[in-house]
Every structure is written in structure tokens, then in C-alpha cells.
Amino acid sequence: MSDLKNMPGPKLPISIGSHLAIRKEDFDTLLDGLRNLGYETVGPRIREQALVYAPINGIADLPKGYLSEQDGGHYRLIQDGHSHYFDITPGAQSWKQFLFPPRSELFKLARENGHWHEELLNTDAPHYAFIGVRGCELAAIAVQDKVFLREDFSDPIYKKRRENIFILAADCFHPCATCFCASMGTGPDAGKGFDLRLTELDEVFLIEVGSHLGTKAMQGVPTSEAMRSMLRARETGLKRARLAMGRELPEPKKVPELLLSNLEHPRWKDVATRCLSCTNCTQVCPTCFCWDVEDLTSLNGATTQRTRVWDSCFNPAYSSQAFGNTRPTTLTRYRQWLTHKMGSWQGQFGVLGCIGCGRCITWCPAGIDLTEEIKAMREEQPA
Predict the structure, then answer these.
(1) Cα–Cα dist 97/283, whole Å
(2) pLDDT tops 90 at residue 28
(3) 328 neighbors 316 (Cβ within 8 angstroms)
(4) Preceding omega of 286 cis (within 30 degrees of 0)
(5) CB 378 within 8 A of CB 258
(6) What three-state secondary structure class fits 240?
């Protein structure tokens, strides 16, 4: 693998399933090609000592040399000078913000000459190329597809945005202490649903083509055939990553029954004494989808606008009804969140609502760990 001076070789036929290698200096050619196809390239960047997803123009914008240190209620970036661009694990942001935006203007009404006129908003959807989507994040997009693209209903905003994205997934070799995607079957390797899959080795990027759109994106990019030694290095790196997970959730298929049959377990009261009901876990979660609408009317009453905004089941007002609050305490709100995410979600959408990214653990100021809470319920069955 060290002899790369002859790359690229003869131009290779590219089709779905092709395994290719590209020099890291040729990655900008791939990004240019995506922009020529009409996509805005968005990827991980460092801003104000945090990892964010924002527009990138070239490989120089990626977080080369960075890792992240994460634990319950703890997040810190580390610059150790290594030469990789995709070693850092995700931060608080997820790709959900581009598909299901925090704020979406729905429509506007204006009164003219005694008549109301409607203007639909958010009718145009941007074209994004997501660069560096981890396996767990790819699984999160698939979960949200089940929520917003059902047979009986499709959310129009999500549908338009989802149709306009290109996904370049990236395998993860360096999970954090709060990661448990291996036990959830969602990582560290990128599963199905990508257009291109990238694995970063010391000297090259391995590329697997996953769609016809991916083949178009690779046109004009200097490539060579991926050598067996490169493919072995990928599998070795993924095996190490599976063993390096900071958390695990054994037997996730049994969790729904465990939670839904223990709604009065004393552990709910214990966690409620620690939970701040701050909504952090739901705001950073890449699969949560609670939302509300806001109506804003001008002072003169001539215009009004409706906007959809993210909400949270931890918000006391979220469960307020005409005759009272159905979940008036932190205990009932936390129980609703965890039993829905890890229990009744399975019945609704055929999949759990958790993909093992660990964001809810990292960004909980109280350091509450759902893997520990579920473990405690298994071990502390009431007599």
C-alpha cells in the first residue's frame, strides 16, 4: 500500500459496488464534481472549538488532526496533529437540521382590499451533498425516513429535501466513550443508503460506489483499483473500532418489552431526581421529531405567518391539554421519552428510535446515561 507513486492507473470502469482508491489531494476534484452536479457540499468543520456541519469548499476545510473527547456531560476537542481528516466523531449537530430544519416557514397570509391572500413558503428545497456521514447518522436518516415518508403520509418539506441530497458516508475508526453503535448494529461501518462510502487510510481514501448518482460523482476523479491490502486495513480498523466502543446496549431487541413492562419501576423515580428536563437530549438527537407551530401576526393585523419549530417531549407545555397536563412531572416526561425512543417506536415504525450515537449522554448536563438506566432496570427487577 505504500507504493502509491503510480496512482492513478488506467481509467477504471465505475459501477455500483466498485471499490476504488483515490489520493487525498484528489478529494477536491470529487467535491468540485459534486458542485458541478448542482450540490452544495456540506461537511464537518471546526468553529469556536466545536464540530459543526457547514459548507466546505475543499479538503482544507475538514478537521484534519482533530479528535473529540466525550463522556457523560463532557465534550472537548483535541488537536493531536495526526494527518487524518475524518477521525473526529460527531458533535452536537446532526444532519437532521438540513432535512427537518429547526424552523420552517409554512405559509403567510396578507390582507389586501378586504381579502386574504395566501403565500406558500418553503416550496424550494436546496440540493446538499452531505460529506462524512457516519454509519450511525446514516441509520438516523433511515429512521427519520420511516417517520416522515410513510405510506399513509409524507411530510412535504422533508420529502423535497430528502430527494435532493447526496450522501458521502464515512467509516468510523475512532468511537468515543459515549458511542454504542456497534451494539445497535448501526456502525462503525456505514450501512446501506449511501451514494459513496469513504474509508480513510493513512495515504488514501477508499471509495465504495453505492448508487448510479455515485458513479456520476466519480467521473473525472483520478482513481485506481483498491488493493487487497487496503481492504484488509479497512476491516482491521473497523474491528478495532467495534472493540473500542465506550458503551454498549446488550440485546436491544429485548429493550421494548423490558421498558413497557416496567412502567412503575422505582428506577424512574431515581432518574427523575437527576434529570433537569432541559430538553438537551432531544435537541441533539438525530431521530427525535417533536414539533410545534408558531403564529406571528403583525401589529396592524394585515399579515400573519405560521412557522414549524422543533419542540421536545421534555417541554412541560408540550403535553398541556385543555383539561390539564398529561405529563406534569419530570418523571413522567423522562419515562415518555425513553419508553417511546426504545419501546413504542418499534411498534410505530418497525425500528428503534435510538442509533447508538451517544449524543444524549454527552450533552446531558447531569450525565444521565440511557444504557445505564436500561441496565439498572434489567438488574433491579421488582420482587
Answers:
(1) 10
(2) yes
(3) yes
(4) no
(5) yes
(6) helix
